[in-house]
Amino acid sequence: MNTTDLFVELIVIGVGATMWVVLLVLSLFGYAWVPFDHLFALPSLLPILAITYIFGIVTDRVADGLFDKVWKPRLAQQFYGQDGDDYDDRRYIYLRSERLASLLEYGRSRLRICRGWFLNTLLILVSLNLFILRQIVGVSAKLSMIVFSNAFLVLLIYGLWFSWRQLTLADYRKVKRQSAWLREHES
Q1: How confident is the model over 75-94, as pLDDT tens digits?
Q2: Cα 87 vs. chain centroid, distance in angstroms?
């Protein structure tokens, strides 16, 4: 994976983190103070991009720790004795086949994005509910916004988790099969 791909991946993850942080700040302090007319000018966008990138890094690391602790070990056991036993196969692929390594990295990028957005969407759900409860006027408006947004975000959370799970299983399967194939065809 080249540096540009990694940068874009962390920006994609960081956008979600920026969303929930902004929602949280607006929930607590309102939005009358926000200079909307200057917010999207180029001088404002560069610091926002830098903060988004940093949020992406932090979110990726936190999501990685969460998924590694809660779900990944059981998935690894379907293909390897325990989580971490795939590292030798992975190294072998990276050393022997640049093309197969690139394909693996593409899949891993997608699973990192799913994992990061799973965490972001959970936090967006909390922040959005707080924003609606604190900043939206009218009980019926609050209720309809909460029902619709919660239904949508819960479905998205499940979809992200399911996608991460399927991508992780595919990653283990590919690593196991591709490393075995490379060893078999070694000259």
Answers
A1: 999 999 877 889 999 999 99
A2: 22
